[in-house]
Amino acid sequence: MTIQATNTALLDWTGDTLAVGLFEGAVELTGDLASLNHKYAGICQEIIAEEEFTGKANSTIVIRLGATNSVRKVIFVGLGKPDALKLETLRRAVASVARTAKKQKTKTLGISLPVWNNDPAATAQALTEGIELALYQDIRFKSEPEDKNPNIETIDLIGLAGQEAAITRADQIVSGVILARQLVAAPANAVTSITMAETAQAIAHEHGLQLEILEQEDCEKLGMGAFLGVAQASDLPPKFIHLIYKPATTAKRKLAIIGKGVTFDSGGLNIKGAGSGIETMKMDMGGAAATLGAAKAIGQLKPDVEVHFISAVTENMISGKAMHPGDILTASNGKTIEVNNTDAEGRLTLADALVYADKLGVDAIVDLATLTGACVVALGEDIAGLFTPDDAVASQLQTAADSTGEKIWRMPMEDKYFDGLKSGIADMKNTGPRYGGSITAALFLKQFVKDTPWAHLDIAGPVWADKENGYNGAGATGFGVRTLVSWILS
Ligand code: BES
Ligand code: MN
Ligand code: ZN
After folding, report:
1. DSSP secondary structure of 259-327
2. Is 15:105 a contact under the CB 8 Å cutoff?
3. 385 touches 413 (CB < 8 A)
4. Is the Cβ–Cβ distance between 447 and 428 less than 8 Å?
């Protein structure tokens, strides 16, 4: 599929399907659309009326002009109220268009949507993202694809000639999102610590990043007792991944991104019980997937920022070697942890990753983790929790997320709640009371960062979607990649 930009006038465009946006309450065709309507004996306006199309956001109607015409079909897509037009409106509208056009067996598609905020570059980028993310289908584990419709061959973004660079930028970002979706969607017998390390190797090789993989012995030397405590029940070797992107010129900033990389979370000896969704726990490396996805995108976008992409990868399993509930682990900053619940393993792996990142002398650290069910209870499945003591980083991340349509919401870091993690025998326990569980998890992580500005995103909800929503299909969303990229570039 090729996406290209053109300034061909709407009335001169020829191809299978022409898609046009209409604002809510403004479905009376005017200007070029009136001429188009007139050319086809008023059929467009007639069907808009007959189908009671109002321009409600993301609604579509298809009008057949006839197989022998220069345009065979028109798709009208609703844009909602004009004053509410956002880039996200365009991403979602174009996702509806792309899906509808594919169902209509469209091979050549022309899309005419309004330019957002007089910014054709941002518009072309958003349209490309919406199209590519919506049309992605994961057929790796099907012996035969279910969708038998042909792929769309070319898509013309009408009125956006000259925006080729924005389209390329979107391609690069989407390649990272799709990598993250693929890693998250693949089951734990396909994506392991070993394949995650191989994926990092492939990114390093393709896009010129440096890679360091710390093996178990290296982690032992660094005293990563928390990470290794989780890893000890697995039959697979732990892999501590550190990918480094360095710009050709001097770096303006130096950043670290950390992702939770638990390729399967059984809970350990505190095994996940009925109704806990153990069968979905292949997605527990969604933070690491977003980190690798961002690395893939940044390796192509090449900003003037040095970025360290870090993940301590293992699985949380059960065996005679497993941690006992109550075991005491020593993390690489010397702090001791009483593991009162082996199912709170993510924070143990992150503890050593945070200590490692803090020693790199970076300007800021952001971690992403499918850390707590409590965060999903608090914010629902679409919104990630943002936890940070640093107002500046909070506002940077909020701005970055807002520009992408990924939803994050700042949660309080209530210091008093750390009392819930007090241990009679060690420096802290790894879990506290049931209530406020996403906050105590964040307060636990804070113990492993000294002075570096740091933020934690709990992505347990948005890493996965139960049903299709906008440009995300049902399943892995690749959440976090676009926010990270936007934050790094800003
Ligand atoms: N990976 C889970 C968190 C999770 C839950 C992610 C649901 C996605 C959906 C994490 O390791 C975990 O098990 N957390 C426990 C913490 C508890 C033991 C304090 C939880 O949320 O129940
Ligand atoms: Mn767990
Ligand atoms: Zn987990």
Report:
1. E-EEEEE--TTS---TTS-GGGGGGGGHHHHHHHHHHHHHHHH--SEEEEEEEEEEEE--STTSPPTT-
2. no
3. no
4. yes
345 marked ligand binding residue: yes
382 marked as part of a ligand binding site: no
Point out the ligand 1 atom lying closest to the alpha carbon of residue 440.
19
373 lines ligand 1 (CB under 6 A): yes
User: Long-range contacts: 204-211, Cβ < 8 Å, 24+?
Assistant: 204/243, 206/296, 206/299, 207/295, 207/296, 207/299, 207/300, 208/299, 209/243, 209/244, 209/245, 209/295, 209/299, 209/309, 210/243, 210/244, 210/245, 210/246, 211/241, 211/242, 211/243, 211/244
DSSP H/E element including 409: strand 407-410
Nearest ligand by distance to the CA of 266: 2
**Ligand 1 binding pocket includes 343 (Cβ within 6 Å):** yes
Residue 267 Cα: closest atom of ligand 1: 13
Sign of CA dihedral 312, 316, 319, 320: positive
Q: For residues 209 and 295, what is the distance between their CA atoms, to the nearest angstrom? A: 8
> Is residue 119 a known part of a binding site?
no
Cβ–ligand 1 distance for 345 under 6 Å, the answer yes
* Calpha distance 268→320 (Å, rounded): 11
Q: Is 83 annotated as a binding residue?
A: no
For ligand 1, atom 5, the nearest C-alpha belongs to: 373
Kind and range of the H or E run holding 5: strand 2-6
Q: Whose CA is nearest to atom 17 of ligand 1?
A: 344
In this prediction, residue 13 carries a pLDDT of 97
| 318 contacts 271 by C-beta, under 8 angstroms | yes
Ion ligand 2: residue ranges with CB closer than 5 A: 265, 343, 345
ipTM of the complex: 0.99
Q: Distance between CA atoms of 355 and 85, rounded to whole angstroms?
A: 43
Closest-CA residue to 327 (of 225, 187, 174)? 225
Amino acid at 205: H
Which amino acid is it at 258? I
pLDDT computed for residue 31 by the predictor: 96
Alpha carbons 357 and 93: distance in angstroms, whole number: 40
Gap between the Cα atoms of 339 and 329, Å rounded: 7
Residue 159 DSSP SS3: coil
Averages of pLDDT over runs of 10 residues in the chain (490 residues) are: 97 97 97 96 97 97 94 98 95 98 98 98 98 98 95 98 98 99 98 99 98 99 99 98 98 98 98 96 99 99 98 98 98 99 99 99 99 98 98 98 98 98 98 98 99 98 98 98 98
Active site residues: 272, 347
For the record, the structure tokens of 181 come out as: 């979706």
Give the pLDDT score at 84.
83
- Ligand 1: does its nearest atom lie under 6 Å from the Cβ of 385? no
